[in-house]
């Protein structure tokens, strides 16, 4: 497989400032682009490579291949594996939208912009490929990877506000920035080729988990040692994100009471809905320029097919991310009456359980919080097993949108909706704070 020997005037990288923070800069390089006579490593090559490493053949098969013979190739200790650096896992691939017209049709919106849902699909599969690149065992000469790589969560997916046009090539890059015993944080970013240089459009942090060959237990991966001040700064920031995620999990409204100021905010919302002409707890009215939260709800149903499965015969996580995002977009348009609203952030996607390919998937979303010209939308993914009739929630997605005008206020009717309002408010302040 040949990698592109292409050239670009500028590309983005990170530089360590005097204050110890990472700043993205544009520097001259011969790093990557567009010698049309040269073979280029593309996102389709990444997908093919992942399937090849997982031992998945092309074509339909009712059952995934038996991977149990690969169990013997897994290491028993991290000390059995060589220590890796971030550059060992770094990879990049082209999404040739500028020249591939078929790809343009797959990625374009009605306005000629790139579909963000397609970006999420590519980010997910690319994070898996980067994880595979990080894992290295010199004692194992097998072509098939003995690991099963799954997406555990996605954190801090942010988008720039400028329009990403489908007629411009895109480049996807990534690297492993922190490692536990079996988990890896993978930073993946997408750039668009605008006016002769690569311009960063979105960046996301994936937590990938290594499982054994049969996906029945965790598996050990190589340790990571930062090499130089830039990698050390990235590693430190990844560690801070891990602490932040653990703190947020402890403070979840499912596990703990709302804070005092949050309780007051909820009661203020309730008092605003009391009918002064009939001041009882039973009677409630909708204030001016407000909507009930339940009135913003929209649902969709997905019936997966074999083309939607991943290498492990479950529904591809990127597919769930794309459908969830597109449902949130419908809610945003329906509520804000503006086309197009700007998606600026996706917060903390957790994959609680794999989705069997023979499931029926229901997605339900609603506007849970508005403030000024911003809106917070939550989408829940539920899975129905048609053979057992059992349902369970596999994912919760949190989206922050920005509009060009002030939005009506969203008000909860029940205590459950009040908690959804509070959770959305937390995610909103967290995402807007990151953008500042």
UniProtKB/TrEMBL annotation:
Gene3D superfamilies: Hotdog Thioesterase (3.10.129.10). One of its GO terms (molecular function) is fatty acyl-CoA hydrolase activity. GO terms for biological process: acyl-CoA metabolic process. PROSITE patterns: HOTDOG_ACOT (PS51770). GO terms for cellular component: mitochondrion. Keywords: Hydrolase, Repeat, Transit peptide. The keyword Repeat applies. Residues 93-214, 294-407 form the HotDog ACOT-type domain. InterPro entries: HOTDOG_ACOT, HotDog_dom_sf. Transmembrane segments: none annotated. Belongs to the acyl coenzyme A hydrolase family. This is HotDog ACOT-type domain-containing protein.
């Amino acid at each position: 497989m040949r990698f592109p020997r292409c050239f670009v005037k500028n590309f983005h990288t990170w530089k360590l400032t005097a204050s110890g923070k990472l700043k993205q800069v544009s520097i001259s390089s011969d790093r990557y682009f567009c010698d049309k006579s040269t073979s280029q490593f593309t996102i389709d090559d990444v997908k093919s490579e992942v399937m090849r490493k997982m031992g998945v053949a092309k074509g339909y098969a009712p059952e995934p291949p038996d991977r149990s013979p690969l169990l013997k190739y897994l290491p028993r200790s991290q000390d059995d594996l060589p220590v890796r650096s971030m550059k060992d896992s770094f990879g990049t691939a082209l999404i040739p939208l500028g020249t591939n017209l078929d790809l343009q049709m797959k990625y374009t919106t009605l306005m000629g912009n790139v579909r963000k849902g397609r970006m999420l699909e590519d980010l997910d599969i690319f994070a898996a490929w980067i994880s595979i690149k990080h894992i290295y065992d010199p004692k194992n000469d097998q072509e098939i990877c003995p690991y099963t790589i799954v997406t555990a969560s996605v954190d801090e997916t942010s988008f720039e506000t400028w329009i990403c046009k489908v007629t411009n090539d895109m480049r996807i890059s990534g690297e492993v920035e922190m490692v536990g015993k079996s988990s890896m944080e993978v930073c993946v970013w997408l750039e668009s080729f605008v006016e002769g240089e690569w311009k960063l459009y979105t960046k996301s942090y994936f937590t990938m988990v290594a499982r054994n060959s049969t996906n029945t237990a965790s598996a050990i991966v190589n340790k990571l040692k930062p090499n130089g001040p830039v990698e050390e700064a990235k590693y430190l920031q990844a560690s801070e994100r891990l602490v932040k995620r653990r703190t947020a999990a402890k403070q979840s409204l499912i596990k703990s009471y709302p804070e005092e100021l949050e309780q007051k905010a909820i009661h203020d919302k309730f008092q605003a809905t009391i009918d002064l002409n009939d001041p009882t707890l039973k009677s409630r009215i909708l204030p001016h320029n407000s909507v009930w939260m339940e009135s913003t709800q929209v649902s969709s149903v997905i019936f997966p097919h074999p083309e939607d499965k991943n290498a492990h015969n479950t529904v591809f996580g990127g597919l769930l991310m794309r459908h969830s995002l597109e449902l949130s977009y419908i809610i945003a348009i329906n509520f804000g009456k503006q086309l197009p609203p700007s998606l600026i952030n996706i917060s903390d996607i957790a994959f609680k359980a794999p989705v069997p390919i023979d499931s029926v998937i229901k997605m339900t979303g609603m506007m849970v919080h508005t403030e000024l010209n911003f809106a917070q939308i939550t989408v829940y993914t539920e899975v129905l097993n048609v053979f057992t009739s059992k349902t369970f929630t596999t994912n919760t997605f949190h989206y922050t949108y920005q509009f060009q005008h002030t939005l009506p206020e969203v008000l909860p009717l029940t205590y459950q909706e009040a908690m959804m309002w509070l959770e959305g408010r937390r995610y909103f302040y967290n995402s807007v704070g990151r953008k500042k």
